[in-house]
Structures are given as structure tokens and as C-alpha cells.
Automatic annotation (TrEMBL):
Pfam families: Lectin_leg-like. Keywords: Disulfide bond, Glycoprotein, Golgi apparatus, Lectin, Membrane, Metal-binding, Signal, Transmembrane, Transmembrane helix. It comes from Anolis carolinensis (Green anole). One of its GO terms (cellular component) is endoplasmic reticulum membrane. This is Lectin, mannose binding 2 like. It is found in: Endomembrane system; Golgi apparatus membrane. The gene is LMAN2L. Gene3D superfamilies: 2.60.120.200.
Length: 341
């Protein structure tokens, strides 16, 4: 993986990288930086010119060395969105970012999101962007809402492993799924990992790689120039022609959320006939073996709805039986009274 890091470094300078090792199997891939989907200093015209490739939203500000999505001030939100839709099939987005602020651990928030979505420039509650989005969201969540709520209610979470924050997670939505902010997106999470990304003196990077319908997220946050696996999900079908963007929000707690660069690489890979068939175009995001919505219930033997229906109809049957019983009993009593007189 170290060779890969060096490869990316060179790619940043030359624009083209020769060979890239992907996971365990060495697969040959050409990597080519796409300027129209990249945001690199000097950020020419961003926030000033309407012909710029990137557009600012909310409190986002362009500085010389970075774009500040939010300052370390309460209740701010900001975003920067690519104006050009991306029609590449296989790509890799390298995000160079910095999160820093005055707040002590867990007294900071809320983090930022990286988007590949149908719509752009839509403010909302999901890290400053629209909920029920259509596409892919990758969240660098620096505040554990769920854990803090449970602490307040003096309850311990009983539904799974506790996640340690800051936490990187990902979600794919076809517009019908909502991000559960109070649970840090746990019900809709496809995958994630802990990532200590705050107040570091070295550079921090996140990579989203989308090759042959496989979504992987890698991190280089330890200052060792090494990529660490975070998420790896096959069978993620994303339509082409969506927009890249990053957004951030602060609430009662805050942080500086800075984007130093966004570099999008086109990846050229060879596909077999079978892979071509499998990777055919989609018009809405789809994840294999997962129903949208209702991701959280697909793994269980009986879904909540099925259980509800069984209980509901059992109760209806019971009430029905009781009513029939009462009617029959009354008839029988009437009959016996008639017999008596
Ligand atoms: Ca959170």
C-alpha cells in the first residue's frame, strides 16, 4: 500500500500514474487526473466567477491554501459543489482535508460529507446538505450524537458494537432513505471505520474509489503515507452524470472544516464480457442484496413489518373469535330459554 501512496503523490504532479496495485490482486489501472472535477489551489475564480468549475454555498470561504466549509463557530454551514456532472464509469476521488478547532474531544462537531449525487447546491440537515438524497454520501462524523443521547438518558446501547468517533461511514440512497442524524446514520450505514482525524499536525487524506461497481474507502491519516482500508463493498451501482460536492455543518459545537484539495482520477480498467453485462447502466442507485429502503432489516430472519403483521392479524382473529363466541353463546342461551318455557 505504501507504493500506492507514492503513486498518488506522483500522479498529483504528473497527472498520469503508471501502475496501481489494487487490494491483494495486482490489477493494471491507468489513472488520469480530471481537471474539470478537481479542486486544486489556486482555486481560480471559485466563489467569484460564474464560469468557475466549482460553486460555493452558505458560509464556505475561499482562502489561499484551503477552502473553509465552516469556521470554528456555532451554527454555520457551507459547501462547495462541482458544476460539471461526472460521466466516468470508474473513478477515484482523493480528498485532502483538515479538521481542527478549539473544542476538546467530543466537544466539537459535526464533521463533513463528500457527495456524489443527482442534485447539487441543496442545503439541508445532513452535514449541511439535503436529506433523502439520490446517490452516494461519505460522512466524516466527528460528533457521537447517539452515544451522547444515551449518556443523557443513562441508557446503554444494546443493539450492536459501539462506534468510536470520529467515524467515517457511507450510505447510498435512491431518495427514499433518510439519514438518521440522532443515530449518526447507523440504520443506513453500508460500512465505516473509526478515524482520528482532528487537530493533527500532518496531512490527512480520504480516498473514495469506485471501480467495477466496487466501492472502497481508504484513509491516510496517521502521517505515515500509508493507505488504510475503511470500507469495501461490492455491487454498488451508481448512475453516471451525478455531481461531486463537499459540505459541512456546525451546531452547538463547532470546528474548522477545511478542504485543501479534491482530486478526481479517471481509472481505466479492462472488463470481461461478463463484467460488462453486470456493470450495465442504472438510472437510480442500487446496492446488490439490499432493499432500498429498509437496509437495516434485510439481515434479520423476520423483519419488523412481518412481525407486526403477524401480531396484528392474530389479534384481529382473536377478536373475531371472541365476537363469534359471544353471538353463538347468546343464540344458545335464547334457544335454551325457549326450550325452558
Ligand atoms: Ca454525528
Amino acid at each position: 500500500m505504501a507504493a500506492e501512496g507514492a503513486c498518488w503523490g506522483e500522479a498529483g504532479l504528473l497527472g498520469v500514474c503508471l501502475v496501481l496495485f489494487w487490494g491483494a490482486k495486482a490489477e493494471q489501472m491507468d489513472e488520469h487526473l480530471k481537471r474539470e472535477h478537481s479542486l486544486i489551489t489556486p482555486y481560480q475564480g471559485v466563489g467569484l466567477s460564474s464560469s468557475s468549475l466549482w460553486e460555493l454555498m452558505g458560509n464556505a470561504m475561499v482562502m489561499t491554501q484551503f477552502i473553509r466549509l465552516t469556521p470554528d463557530i456555532q451554527s454555520k454551514q457551507g459547501a462547495v459543489w462541482n458544476r460539471v456532472p461526472c460521466y466516468l464509469r470508474d473513478w477515484e476521488m482523493q480528498v485532502h482535508f483538515k479538521i481542527h478547532g478549539q473544542g476538546k474531544k467530543n466537544l466539537n462537531g459535526d464533521g463533513f460529507a463528500i457527495w456524489y449525487t443527482k442534485e447539487r447546491m441543496q442545503p439541508g440537515p445532513v452535514f449541511g446538505s439535503k436529506d433523502n438524497f439520490i446517490g452516494l454520501g461519505v460522512f466524516v462524523d466527528t460528533y457521537p450524537n447517539e452515544e451522547k443521547q444515551q449518556e443523557a438518558q443513562k441508557k446503554r446501547y444494546s443493539g450492536g458494537n459501539q462506534r468510536i468517533f470520529p467515524y467515517v461511514s457511507t450510505m447510498v440512497s435512491n431518495g427514499s432513505l433518510a439519514y438518521d442524524h440522532d443515530r449518526d446514520g447507523r440504520p443506513t450505514e453500508l460500512g465505516g471505520c473509526t478515524a482520528m482525524v482532528r487537530n493533527l499536525n500532518h496531512d490527512t487524506f480520504l480516498v473514495i474509489r469506485y471501480v467495477k461497481r466496487r466501492l472502497t474507502i481508504l484513509l491516510d491519516i496517521d502521517g505515515k503515507h500509508e493507505w488504510r482500508d475503511c470500507v469495501d463493498i461490492p455491487g454498488v451501482h451508481l448512475p453516471r452524470g451525478y455531481y461531486f460536492g463537499v459540505s459541512s455543518v456546525t451546531g452547538d459545537l463547532s470546528d474548522n472544516h477545511d478542504i485543501i484539495s479534491l482530486k478526481l482520477y479517471q481509472l481505466t480498467v479492462e472488463r470481461t464480457m461478463e463484467e460488462e453485462k453486470r456493470d450495465k447502466e442504472v438510472f437510480l442507485p442500487v446496492v446488490d442484496n439490499m432493499k432500498l429502503p429498509g437496509l437495516e432489516t434485510t439481515m434479520e430472519p423476520m423483519s419488523g413489518l412481518a412481525l407486526f403483521l403477524i401480531v396484528f392479524f392474530s389479534l384481529v382473529a382473536l377478536v373475531f373469535a371472541i365476537v363469534i363466541g359471544i353471538i353463538v353463546y347468546n343464540k344458545w342461551q335464547e334457544q335454551s330459554r325457549k326450550h325452558f318455557y
